[in-house]
Amino acid sequence: MFQYDRPLYRPPSEAQSLIFQVTLGCSHNTCTFCSMYRSKDFRVRPWAELEADLREGAEAYPHIKRIFLADGDAMVLSYDRLVRVLTTIRTLWPHGPRVSVYARSEGVLSKSDKELAHLRDLGLALLYIGLESGDDQVLEDIKKGETVADIIRACDRAQAAGMAVSVMAIVGLAGKAGSRRHALETARALSRIRAQYIGLLTLMVEPDTPLADQVRAGDFEPLSPEEAVREMRILMEALDSPGSYFSSTHPSNYFVLSGRLNEAKADLLEELDFLLAHPDQLYGSHYRRL
């Protein structure tokens, strides 16, 4: 079987997906908290390599239902290259598996509405978009290279084209000093987007990142596990996103919650209150990972 250029990452919900690396690394790769692709220089994989992988994958897994296009931002590919990839997938798997990608706002916004709709028709059904925070100051501090308005506009245009979006935010990303504002502004942005899926992660300070340097210098104070629960409760209480499926199943979290909003909101708040009253029920740090 084809060899991956590691490290290789995918969302938890793509555990049963066949993964193809259409790019290597991340087109941005300067976020202060992120260590995922720091060992790689970003590049688009040559078509001959990718096509060989696709054909080998189709021969080995002819009935696969889901395909995830890695690495960090497949939507940065040109419209023509994405059409070529998706058309080849449709040819090799005529039953039309669902295709999903990680996406930054710039990759989405670089395509016209007509182009996005055509990509959806070719099978690109789900975009995983990292909001990280609804607070523009936090996005500037982490060198995200996007604004909240950019991300909201990208989500709006993707959804208008018929794509589902799964929006991710990170508990603890503003540290102790900015915790409450981060929670409230992130809830505000998520309520505006009303994504099909909302996934919350909890910050892990990875070695050899600029954020780790800030922690060592005393310029950033991470949240304790209990403070992370409290921040998520503030966010959840302010969140108004009917129809969204909420999940904290990512392994970076100290606990797992999930449910359909807004119906499950009261139950989710009750579970968070229980965790605040019983912090011994939180996962230990040795269980957490990216």
Task: Describe the protein's architecture and organization.
The chain is of the alpha/beta class and 290 residues long. It has a single domain, classed as Aldolase class I (TIM Barrel, Alpha-Beta Barrel). The protein is built from 10 helices and 10 strands. The strands form 2 sheets. Strands 1-4-5-6-7-8-9-10 form an 8-stranded mixed β-sheet. Strands 2-3 form a two-stranded antiparallel sheet. α2 links the parallel β4 and β5. The radius of gyration is 19 Å and the shape is globular. Its cofactor is [4Fe-4S] cluster. This is Radical SAM protein. Pfam families: Radical_SAM.
Core attributes:
290 residues; alpha/beta; two-stranded antiparallel sheet; 10 helices; 38% helix; 17% strand
Task: Give the helices and strands, then pairings.
Blueprint: E1 18-21, E2 23-24, E3 43-44, H1 47-60, E4 66-70, H2 79-92, E5 98-103, H3 105-109, H4 113-121, E6 124-132, H5 136-141, H6 148-160, E7 164-171, H7 179-193, E8 197-202, H8 210-216, H9 225-238, E9 245-247, E10 258-260, H10 265-277
Parallel strand pairs: 1-4, 4-5, 5-6, 6-7, 7-8, 8-9
Antiparallel strand pairs: 2-3, 9-10
InterPro entries: Aldolase_TIM, BchE-like, Elp3/MiaA/NifB-like_rSAM, rSAM, rSAM_sf
Protein name: Radical SAM protein
Cofactor: [4Fe-4S] cluster
